[in-house]
Structures are given as C-alpha cells and as structure tokens.
Design goal:
heterodimer, A: Four Helix Bundle (Hemerythrin (Met), subunit A), 2 domains, B: about 500 residues, mainly alpha, 21 helices, 2 strands, about 75% helix
Chain lengths: ~170, ~500
C-alpha cells in the first residue's frame, strides 16, 4: 500500500464516519460540526485527484462560507440548539423499505463503477490547474461564467425578497 | 489562449446572442428603476414589456441559419428560435395578465421584483432552448428554477403560497441533484459534456449500456421534473394550487416549453447517429438502448394519471394542473416518434397549447378576482353573470379537449398523425382514450357555468376593458388556428432543423 492509498482510505473513512454522525446525531450542533469533517475529507480527496483548485474552493466556500453560516444560523436561532431532532419517526415497514432500496442502490452503484468501461485520462503532470481553469472560464466557458453571475443575482434578489418584512 | 480567431468567433456569438443580452439588460435596468421609484405600481411592468418586445423584435429578425456559438456551448438554430419566440410570447401575455391580477396587488404589495424575476426566468428558459452542453443545461435549469421558486411563493403571507414554494424547492433540489449525477456519469462515459461530442464518442467507442441507461434516465428525470412528467410530477398540483394564478399559468406553459426543447435537443443530438443524416425523415439510434420505449412509457403514465386524477378535482387551479400534466403526456407522444414529423407535431401542439392554456388560466384569474377563490362551486351560474368570459372559457375548454373547430384539434391531429405514421398504434389508442376521459372534467366546468344555479340573484359581473382585450387576443387565435392553420404548419415545419454540431 502506497502512501497515496493510505491517505485515500483515511479520507474515505473520515467522510463516511462524519457523514453518519451528520445524519444520525440528535443534536443539530453536533451534526453541523460533523459536517465540517465531511467537507474536509472531500477536500482531501480532491487533492489526491490532482484537483487543487477544487480542493481550495471546497475549503474556502464550503467550510469557510457555508458551514460557518450554518453554525451561526444555529447559534443565533434561539430554541433550536436544545431541540432534539427527531430521527426515528418512521414505522418498521418504512425502515425496511428504505433499507432495501438503499441496498439495491448501493449494489447498483458498485456494479456501475466496476463494470463500466470508463473514459479515463492519464493523470495530468501539471503542477497546478488554476491557470488553465482561469483561461477556460474566460474563453470556452465564458457563457457559463456569465450565466452563473445572472443566476447568483437572481438568488440574491430572491433571498432579499423572502427576508423582507411585510410592507404596508 | 486568446487569439484573433477566438475574438472573431466571440463577436459573431455576441451578435447572435442579442435577444438574450437585451433580456439581461432589461433585468438590470428594471432593477435600478425599482430602487429609484419604489412605490410605482406599473412602472416595472411597463419596462419589462418594452424590454421583452425589443428582444422579440431582434429575435424575429434573426437569420434562419444555424451556428454553434460560444465555443459550441449554445446552438443557434430555427428549432431554438421557435421555442424562444413561444417563451417570449408567453412571458408578454403573463406580464399583461399580472397587471390585472387582484391577488398579486392585494394589500399594496410591492411587485417590482415580481416582474424582474419573470424577465430573469425568461433568460434562463431562452438558454435552455439553445443549450448544447450539459453544464449550460444545468445552469439554465437552475436560473429558471430559482426564479420560479421565488415567484411561486411571491404572495408569501398566504400560507399555501409559501408552502408551495418550499415544496417546489425541495423537490427541485432532489431532481437537480439526480440530474447532475447523471451528467457526471455521462462525462465519465464519454469524456465530454457537449451534445455533439457525446454523440461522436458514442459512435466511436464502446459505451457500457447499463451505465448509459441509468445516466440517461437520471437526466430525463431532471428534465421530466420541469415538464411535470409522471413519476416526477408530485410537486405539480400543490405548487400550481398555491402559486399566484399568473405564475401557475407561466409554469404550465413556458417552463414546460423550455423543458421539452432541451429534452428533444438532448435526445436527438446525443443519442441519434449524426453521420447518417442524409434523409431527414429517419433518425437512427446509436447503441442498444431504446429511448423511444422509455419516452413512450413516460408518455402513457403522464397522460393517464393526469386525466384520471383530474376527474376528482374541485379546485380549478388543481384541475388545470392535472390537465397540464395530461397535455405534457400528449406532447411526449410526439417526442416518442423521434422523426422530423414528430418534432413538427410537438411544435404545433405546443403553440396551440400555449394559447388555449393561457386563455383558460386567464379566465380562472378573472373569475377569482371577483369571487376570491378558484373553487369549482363558485362557477355555478357564471355563464349568466359573465356571459362573454364564459363563452371564451367554453372555447378554451373545447380546445383543450381537442375538438374541432378549435386550435386544440389541430394540435391533437398533428400529434396523432405523427404517432400513427411511426406505427405506434397502441400509443395513439391510449392517447385517444385519454382525450375522451378529459372531456368529462372539462364538460363539468361548463355544466357548472351554464346549467347549475339558475335562480341566483342574476348580478352581472363587470370587468375592466383590458381583461376583455386580453381575452380576445387569446380566444380569437384559438378559433382561427382551428380553421386556418397553414401558417402555423409552415412555421413549425421550417423550425424542425436542429443544429447537430460542426
């Protein structure tokens, strides 16, 4: 086992274990903190895949932005921190059905990933992908970049609209 | 790297992108005016209309040639133009309708953002109609969805509107999650996201069938959510009932049109042999997966469930929601055929559906302005209180059923002919049976309007002249296209050409 393999399994276990806590924890604060480790693990996987820009973005946006926002949201909303989130409101039948569906989905995914003839590329030898991504964003993917800006503007207007007090 | 060739291509792309650019400009100008003149009632509506009309003028005057623009991210072709014109017409009618909506202006609500978001949503749908790359498809779907989530809950003090909005967001998030997973599988299989590159990768290399099937189904699920095809329709009745009527009408026409445009383009450009396209009539499938059967099953489920559940509805918006699900099923029949005749029939049906469905929603809105809700019981005796409006409603309902001499008949006729030509006899039979079922619930509405409750105090409803003009604008074409439909046929036939890449 090479060092990269060890690193991969470390991150993979980190992601799965913390994701499990996110879903099952009854305290929303614990869930939010466990999410931190999930995001961090995903960033680690990106690094192993030579996707340095994605890894940085993952840390800056998801951990630095979204997660901090979630934690602030939880802390500033009084009465939410102490409330137990109900994780067990399903009947036996529902639990079994969900379990069976999940197993089928898992087997399906494993089959897909092992049986498919993937279109693979050699791992790039470049030191950094940031420059290429920047160039592509302003050439081939220019229109996507512009659409994203309109999309974000619409989302901001929407957020302001929802938050606005009733006018009279 | 940036060079001369890239710059000249970019310039050409920007020229062909003018209608969309005008939409974004309108969006921003309206936003600024909304900040300056905070309390004007109709100013933003007027600005939006002006922008939309300008965009339309440039759209109609654009050349009929085809080209790949923005490095192949978008395809500029007659097919996309048809859908763009259809979406733009719908938007203009919806903005005009909104001006008369009582529900929207109730309690002095500020409506500037409402029109701004409609323009933003139009931009998203325009892109969807021309998108030739899965990333752009995703971005365009999100632009359209996020605007429509907000618009569906615009009357946020009304509980059912906020509930509708939240349901829409949750279902929407799940479906776009599925779609982007499917996109990632396609990328893994073919190493590309552009439709024509996916096509050439599928021709040249051996693609694993199971993975392709699952990836394709996931993408179809994402688009199926937008066109509310069964089994991705769960949000439709609740959202259509809770949203303001104008937005319900908008979602039922424009966002479906955009969804169908991208569905047809994706299936045709990616999954059909582009090298063997000498004869425009025949499309040859690549690979072992029969996408026609997949769409046929969706179509049968969609129209049957839509029509059967519509039978029990007592709320007009809910009833029209299920009716619109059923119509999506009929239109999917045209997609099943997967020939140029099939696409022509889809275009014809969509144009007709736009007019008659907007008309029916307009009547529902006019009557809800008077009675305060959309309960079907409130329609008792409306035929005597508002004779002209009811007469128009009868025209729209006959057209929705698909009986001559209305435009709805032409739409159904086009779709059924296309299906019969491709020897999907069983599908045509299911379609005809469904039309018969639909007659029942449409007739129920005009039974209530004319036969029920004669002895009522015979008060006559007064409506503003604007609503009458709008009604005439929609009712007259519904009749005219039922009798004189050659221009519509010609336009649709000249618009089937889908750009297949360079």
């Amino acid at each position: 086992m090479s060092l990269i393999d060890i690193a991969f399994y470390f991150f993979a276990i980190l992601i799965i274990a913390s994701a499990y806590i996110v879903v099952t924890s009854k305290n929303i604060m614990y869930s939010a903190f466990a999410l931190l480790f999930t995001f961090f693990g995903v960033a680690g996987i990106y690094v192993l895949l030579n996707a340095d820009f994605l890894a940085i973005t993952q840390i800056v946006i998801y951990i630095g932005g979204i997660l901090v926002l979630i934690i602030f949201g939880v802390m500033l909303t009084n009465r939410i921190t102490g409330v137990d989130i109900k994780t067990g409101t399903m009947s036996k039948f529902q639990i079994w059905m969900t379990a069976i569906l999940c197993v089928i989905a898992a087997i399906g995914l494993i089959l897909i990933f092992t049986q498919t003839n993937w279109n693979t590329a050699l791992s790039p030898t470049k030191a950094s992908t940031i420059e290429d991504i920047g160039t592509l964003l302003l050439t081939d993917y220019l229109i996507g970049f512009e659409i994203a800006s309109v999309l974000l503007l619409i989302a901001i207007i929407g957020a302001a609209l929802i938050a606005r007090r009733k006018t009279n | 790297m940036i060079d001369e060739i890239f710059l000249s291509q970019l310039k050409q792309s920007v020229d062909l992108f003018l209608p969309e650019t005008i939409l974004v400009a309108t969006f921003i100008i309206a936003l600024i005016f909304d900040l300056i003149y905070k309390n004007s009632r109709y100013l933003i509506a007027v600005i939006s209309i002006i922008g939309l009309v300008f965009s339309g003028i440039f759209l109609v005057n654009q050349s009929t040639s085809s080209a790949a623009i923005f490095s192949g991210m978008l395809s500029f072709d007659p097919f996309g133009n048809f859908f763009k014109i259809l979406i733009l017409l719908t938007t203009i009618i919806i903005v005009l309708m909104s001006v008369f909506s009582k529900e929207l202006y109730e309690g002095g609500r500020k409506t500037g953002e409402y029109y701004i978001l409609i323009v933003g949503m139009t931009f998203g749908m325009f892109l969807l109609a021309v998108a030739n790359n899965l990333i752009i498809v995703y971005l365009a779907i999100e632009t359209m969805s996020i605007s429509s989530y907000i618009l569906a809950g615009y009357t946020k003090e009304i509980k059912r509107a906020s509930e509708a909005s939240l349901k829409y967001v949750i279902f929407g998030a799940v479906s776009s999650g599925m779609m982007i997973y499917g996109i990632s599988l396609i990328y893994g299989l073919t190493g590309s996201l552009t439709f024509d590159a996916i096509n050439s990768a599928m021709i040249s290399s051996d693609i694993s069938g199971l993975t392709l099937l699952i990836a394709g189904l996931m993408i179809i699920a994402g688009i199926g959510y937008k066109i509310s095809a069964v089994p991705f329709h769960f949000w439709t009745p609740d959202v259509y009932e809770g949203a303001p009527i104008t937005i319900t009408a908008y979602l039922s026409v424009a966002s479906k049109a955009a969804g169908f445009a991208v569905l047809i383009r994706f299936l045709k450009v990616s999954f059909f042999d582009s090298t063997n396209y000498a004869n425009d009539e025949i499309w040859t499938l690549i690979g072992t997966i029969d996408w026609q059967i997949v769409i046929a099953i969706l179509s049968v489920l969609t129209m049957t469930l839509g029509n059967l559940v519509a039978l029990w509805q007592t709320n007009m918006k809910r009833l029209l929601a299920y009716s619109s699900i059923a119509h999506a099923g009929y239109i999917l029949m045209g997609v099943v055929v997967m020939t140029d005749i099939g696409v022509t029939s889809v275009l014809i049906y969509f144009f007709v559906y736009m007019i008659m469905n907007l008309g029916a929603f307009l009547v529902v809105m006019i009557i809800a302005n008077k009675t305060g809700n959309e309960d079907i019981q409130k329609y008792n005796g409306i035929g005597h209180k508002a004779p002209f409006v009811s007469a128009c409603m009868v025209i729209f309902l006959i057209s929705l059923t698909g009986l001559p001499p209305t435009a709805g008949f032409i739409g159904k006729w086009a779709v059924f002919t296309a299906v019969l030509k491709s020897e999907y006899i069983w599908l045509a039979v299911v379609g005809v049976l469904n039309s018969v079922v639909s007659l029942y619930y449409y007739v129920k509405i005009f039974r209530n309007m004319y036969i029920r409750n004669f002895e009522d105090d015979s008060e006559i409803y007064e409506f503003s002249p604007g609503t009458y003009i709008l009604l005439i604008i929609l009712a007259v074409p519904t009749l005219i296209f039922g009798i004189y439909f050659t221009p519509l046929l010609d336009w649709a036939e000249s618009s089937v050409k889908i750009f297949l890449g360079v």
